[in-house]
Every structure is written in C-alpha cells, then in structure tokens.
Specification:
Helix content: 10-25%
Strand content: 35-45%
Radius of gyration: 21 Å
Structural class: mainly beta
CATH superfamily of the largest domain: Glucose Permease (Domain IIA)
Largest sheet: 8 strands, antiparallel
Number of domains: 2
Number of strands: 24
CATH class of the largest domain: Mainly Beta
Distance between the termini: 43 Å
Length: 307
Amino acid sequence: MVARTVLALGAVVAVAWTIGYARGSRAERQIPDACGDSSAISLQPLTPARGALFQVRVSGTPAGAHLTGVVAGEPLHFATDSAASVSLAAIPIDGPDSLEIVVRCTMDGASDSITTRIATTSGNYPIERLRVAPAFGRPPDSATAARIARESKRAVDVATQAHATPRLWQEPFAVPREARITSGFGGGREFNGTITSRHMGTDFAGATGSPVRAANRGVVRIVDAFFYGGNVVYLDHGAGLTSAYLHLSEQLVVAGDTVQRGQTIGRVGATGRVTGPHLHFIVRYGAVTVDPLSLFAVAGDSSGRGG
C-alpha cells in the first residue's frame, strides 16, 4: 500500500498528488499507482458545515480503480458521473473544526490511499423554548425510558445498516412536502424550562391528513408507533442514506415495501410529542443525523429543494 497525506485547510480544497517509487527490483518499480498520478479530491460545498451532508469528488483516477473511503467514521460509497467518482459524506453537528478524509483506490491487487484534512464551518442553531403536555415535560419513568431506548436503537440500526444496502435512487431527492418550514434543523429546544435537546430534523407545516411523500426510492424498514415520534415510517435509500417521517396520522406502507420518489407514504398528523400537526423529517448518513436541507442542496434538483 502507498499512503499519501496532504494538509488542506481553507475554502478551496482541491489536491493532486504524484508518487515516485523508490528504486528497487523490476517488480517493485512496476507496482501500479492505483489512484493515478493526476488524482484529485474536491468537495461540494467547498467548506462543509457541521451537521450537514456534502459531496466528496475524486477525479483523475485510472479506469477500473475501485474507490472506498471514510469520513467521520462513516464509509463512503462512490458512484461515477461524467467527470468524477462521487460520494455523499456527513459531518456530525458536534463535530470538530477540521476533518480528515481518507480515500483508498484498489486496482489489480494494488492499493493507494489519499488522506487530506479540511476545515469545517459551524451552523448557527438557535435556542427555541416550547411548552408541551406535562407528560412529555417530565423525565420518563423507567419503563418509558426503556421503550425510548429500544426505539432509538431500532432507528440507529436501520441507519447504520443502510451502508450494506446498494444505492437505490437515481433521481434527485425531493422534499416530502411542498410546505412552509416551521422549525429548522439543529436548534436547541427547551421543553417547559426543564428538558433541553436539539431539534434533529426539519418540520414541515400541514393539516392533519395532508400527504407525506417519499423523498426518493427506498425500502421501508420501520412502520410503527414510537413514544416521541408517534406514527413513523423509516426508509432505507441505500449507500448509507436513510430518511424518516414522524408524527403521522396514517401510515400507507408496510415494512419491506419498495417505494418510489414522490409516492405518498403517509399523512400529516399530531401523534407522539408534538405541539400540533406537522411532519418532522429526518435524514441520516450512517449514524450521523444531518440537516435535511443539505441533502436537497447536494443531491436535489437545480433548485436545491429537490423538486
């Protein structure tokens, strides 16, 4: 294996490397450079935000090279477009102000790794103070806490196992509702002055019974009633990506269904911990929960809304 490390901190991240092999036997001199002499990494956006998705693009690699990688502990899944091999990646909301990217190329039995470090930016996440029903404003009893832990584990298991699912989508991602956003991602929430948490999703307005649509093609992994989320649907889109739809009044799919982009999978409701009817929409890359709007920005249509 040939390892290459480059430090790149700043707005523009585009790096190319050239390797000269040490003199040795004829066999050693003929070891192929699996990543190619003109290989380069670029990012979209150039300086990713913490709590967001971004694209890792690798260009200049030889035809037939197989690319893998890791960002923030989550595997990368590269697909080839007309100019580069591209993977989604994610930064945790509480991630560091710089992040290492490791990409490995494998070809004809040889491996060549590229490592670079990039700067990240912080999101501006406000604090929101809410009042909810007293049953949701107190710490849960032991039985409820155990239930919440089980439900959280199920959701995380679906998210992490999406790395083993092949990429299922071809079209851009679409918003689940063409509606006003009532609460954005990442804000701190203080419930009745006692419980503080982050809002790890995006809320879309809607009257009870309004349609909720799949953001893209995927397999239904969970259809259930959760303590906090109420009636929920979780979709596995493959290549590490999942989406979840919470507080539904109706669920119109069953676990194991394959749904298409724009298909109605449920209806807006007010089940679970809510202040009124709306859709709470979650996106995860592996175990990292990200701003859903960042998905539409990097993998939606040209409007950035997903169409």
